[in-house]
Amino acid sequence: MNVSSTKRRLCPCIAKDSPPLCSLTSSPSHYQLYTTLSPDFSLIILSAAKQFAGVFVPAEVRDVSLTYVRLSAFTTFSGALEYAISNATRALDYPDVPLLINLARFAINIILDLLLISRFHVGSITPTVNMQAGIRLACDMVAASAGLAYFLFLTWRQLSKPSLNALKILLRPGIMTFVESAIRNALYLWLVSNIVAMGAEYATAWSIFNTIRWGLVMVPVQTLEASALTFVGHRWGRWRHASEPNKASWKDIQYITRPAIIAAGIALIVEIPLAIGLSLAGAQSFAYYLSQSASVAKITAYMWRTIDWCYIFYALSTQLATILLATVPRWYLYQSLVSNIFYVLPWAVVCQTRHLNADNAWTYHALVFGGSLVFSFFDIVVFLVAWSLRLQKGKMA
């Protein structure tokens, strides 16, 4: 079994290249808050590694996974730091900083993989899954440090003295997105604990499914989201500055929302062929390559074919949600609360109370993960209709 498949068996809740748990945000203050709290999260996971493994690691490999869990605890901090710098600088119109971060992570990852865990590695080193966790930690820390140093180099002459008023300006929208992500990810972790309880094979299939949806679906969509968010925010600011008393015409609404609409169109062009290709052949082959297990690959392919169409709704809703997030962040929080409280939470309770096993669990998990994407799309559309109506009446100032 290769290192990547072993890693997924040891800790299936951590997918390869998945971002930190509190993602999908835009306010720089949110990233500051999460980066400040992430060392505490790391220490909590480190000190409670055994209990953490008891919840999120299948019983078959629980005893040998503690070292991996302890190493992965620090990726909470390193990943948060790297993700915070990348997204905050993008929101501040420094897209070259995340580019440098990705280049640095890619370069150090290639070098360390070749030196330590490839077939041609140096010396008599025996590659292990714990070594792979250390490599990921090193990649995140080097990339984050390089990005931070480059950002400070670009802006050191522009830096103004920090003030409480400046913090308050950033903190208000940041609290909205922080609360939203905290609620969303608390429910997600609750569901993951139920998935892990289905056994190592099911949990490994879920982990590989996560790798597919993050790496091939969600990361490209979230890249488009970051661009749409920036441009919608700029247009919203220009319109607010130029319009009195902030009563919008239909032409104004089109002007503000155009970047999000274009991003949604691009997402459809990319994601529809990708979903079809993965469903026809790609998902099972890719899953077998990662797991080296025919049964795991079959389960993963079934998972993907069941809810692949739901990610079309995800691609659309993510771009459309940037309109709310860039203009009225509290409405973004409200629509997320509606989705999580009225759809995800009831189904999460069902998953915990029903007597699920590996044979019937995906029926319920598909309704949670796939259904929530569809529900969120229509939820966001309703909020956008209300947003546009209130904007035309001048009630969103």
From TrEMBL:
Entry GO CC: plasma membrane
Membrane-protein topology: Multi-pass membrane protein
Annotated localization: Cell membrane
Keyword Transport: yes
Keywords: Cell membrane, Membrane, Transmembrane, Transmembrane helix, Transport
Main localization category: membrane
Transmembrane stretches, start-end: 99-121, 133-153, 186-208, 255-280, 311-333, 364-389
Name under which the protein is recorded: Uncharacterized protein
Lineage: Eukaryota, Fungi, Dikarya, Ascomycota, Pezizomycotina
